[in-house]
Amino acid sequence: MSKQHNTGFLAMVDAAKSRVREISIEQYNAHQAPCVLIDVREDLEWQKGHLPQAMHIGKGVIERDIEGKVQDKQQTLVLYCGGGFRSALAADALQQMGYSDVLSLAGGYTAWVNAGLPVTQD
């Protein structure tokens, strides 16, 4: 059962997605350039499982903490959340902060798991 989102939230996501580039799981797996994979989900979501090699910076603190973790604003960043909505909002904010190569993983963690790809727990 998928989560039903409110119309105001969906309008914000749609606006962000018009400014943010999305990347499919297939494109991410074929991506050759080095990138930083960032999970923007909540702490409990992260603890239940996340993509291998991901760094966790929750959406609620990413603007505050990103510059301490990724100083190079030209570094490719791939953000994901549960379904690709929060990651689009976070990617939009990072672009406003001057990060020039930010991508949102389409479908997020749910699409990754549904594709049968590996996850890890810390």
Automatic annotation (TrEMBL):
CDD domains: RHOD (cd00158). Residues 31-121 form the Rhodanese domain. SMART domains: RHOD (SM00450). PROSITE patterns: RHODANESE_3. Pfam families: Rhodanese (PF00581). It comes from the Bacteria. PANTHER family: FAD-DEPENDENT OXIDOREDUCTASE, PYRIDINE NUCLEOTIDE-DISULPHIDE OXIDOREDUCTASE. This is Rhodanese-like domain-containing protein. It comes from Rheinheimera tilapiae.
